[in-house]
Queue: 2 jobs
Job 1
Amino acid sequence: MKDFDKLIETCLLELDKTGIKYGNVIKWKINTRAKKRWGQCRVLPDEKGFEISISKRLLDDNVPDKSAKSTIIHELLHTCKGCRDHGTEWKKLAYVVNSELGYNIKRCTSAAEQGICEENTVKQAKYAVRCLKCGKIYERERKSKLIKNPHRYRCGVCGGKLEAAFSSGGKKT
Ligand SMILES: [Zn+2]
Ligand SMILES: [Zn+2]
């Protein structure tokens, strides 16, 4: 696995070169569960700083550093003033980063663009149910009995109730 701290440090140094003023990131997290998101930026409840999480998939040694870094910078841009969404301000800064630092930061990036071969990773199932108690996801390719009537079944891990869940594509960061 890549050295997350080192990647963060490099990104901060690179951003400093552009003069972009990013916010105060108090927490950096590796998200081991996210399949649909590459990264996420959250304002911490006291509004004094941000928490950024990056998908563990991007920290795999087989993935180019640039992919992990572009996601880190994508999220860092969300900490800038007026940049919580992908509006005009965020786009302006993304343009600066892309042209000055040679990135290709966009609103949405596919797995292929990140240098991740989907065949080697978890395939996104068509149907899914989720345990209400422990959160375990049961994925199915077909509309099985379990998918049709999740309430008739119980979680194999904890015995909790199940509910329908969706696992559709489209990775937003
Ligand atoms: Zn469960
Ligand atoms: Zn974003």
Job 2
Amino acid sequence: MLRFILIALSIHAVHTQAAAPAETDTLTAMRVLRDECLGCHKPGKAKGGLLLTTREKMILGGDSGTSVIPGRAGESLLYELVLEDADPHMPPKKQLSKDQVTALQNWITQGAVWDASVFDELPVPQPVALAPVPVTYQPVLALALSPDEKTLAIAAGSRVHLHDLTQPDRPRLGSLSGHEEAIQSLAWTQDGTTLITGGFRQLKLWDITTFKTTGQISTGFVGNLTALALTTDGKILFAADGETGGAGFIHRIDLPGKKLLSTWKAHDDTLYALRLSPDGSSLASAGADKLARLWKVADSKLISTYEGHTSHVLSVAFNKDATQLATAGADREIKVWDVKSREQDVTLGDKKTAFTALAWTPDGKALVAVTEKGNGSIYTELKKHDGAQRSETAKQTKLTGIAAMLYSVAVTSDAKTVFAGGDAGKVWLWDAAGKQTSVIEP
Ligand code: HEC
């Protein structure tokens, strides 16, 4: 909302003032570059040989030479090509608005000052018409055990099923329906009375005794809310957001007030996972940009970046005292990092399948991982490897493989039951020996 207001204000300013303040033109011009030009003028897709990712590259220009002469808009190719009768015309299939063209002109005239902060702004949500999720599409993208471990919440497509784990046959207690889109993420409040669901551009809160919504937040989001993390006092909720293929943002939300407090760009690509440290002081994030990051909960400042995966990082988990962080990658590796030194203590996995989800028991004794091929392992007795003993870095208990992709995992704190969610709303169960014991079907 704030962004809409800012844009409305900046356009208004261009209309009414003879010489608009430089800052307004800079922001407008650079948002034009970001939203209308960068798609075709970025590394890997530099049309006309031109990159518009930095001021230096822009000035250096493309096949025809310099594209901007700061101070001289009329002699700058970048300005000439956005005019109505230009040939070639930029962007090729569209005419920028008069305000946008004027902003570009003023910006170049004023020296083409670069303000990279616009690249970190949340994009303007594009309108979409959502088709309801087909009943047959029910991947279990999220699973969450209630804090007392008596109830399992299973996100299956657009609904959540709640199952009673205190009964031997784990009967269904009820279902939450209200989302039309696939539910991506779940979080319980510490008292176990409320479940939070994250879908497409909306969060819902549910009373789990009545199975009814008690509130929702549906402004300020731009895409799928792929992960949630709630502080133990239930006051601050972190939600991962982003457009498909776009940067990953983290929202800081005042949950009782149902209010967005702040938003920051956390990763250059889709964010897949968020996890709070057991003491609630730091937040780990993981994304398609091959990175995991650690943020300070108090002020959302970046603490560390963990670099080493060669593909998407799909899940993160902390050990008991948050001295170690485990990350699961599409590069078929699980890495266990020393949180402080950012060094890799242990590398796990047979490099055959991508790991999709991780869970670490609260006592830090068992780390569970599941894969896209229906496999998984329970790792215990993790040891730092010192090169020579690479093969003996942990005790591995393999989970009996099943013929389905697994998306999500949960484990009881005694490590005696592992739950993993697959397609068609199904959740498979394994015991501590890795034996597959039963299936919860929708
Ligand atoms: C859909 C892709 C696309 C978009 C979007 C796009 N361009 Fe281009 N751009 C091209 C192509 C293709 C060329 C090469 C055209 C040619 O040489 O005939 C080009 C060439 C240019 C050049 C000339 C480079 C040179 O040195 O020859 C400039 C300057 C330029 N674009 C600026 C822009 C600006 C500014 C925007 C946004 C307002 C923009 N482009 C948006 C595809 C795009």
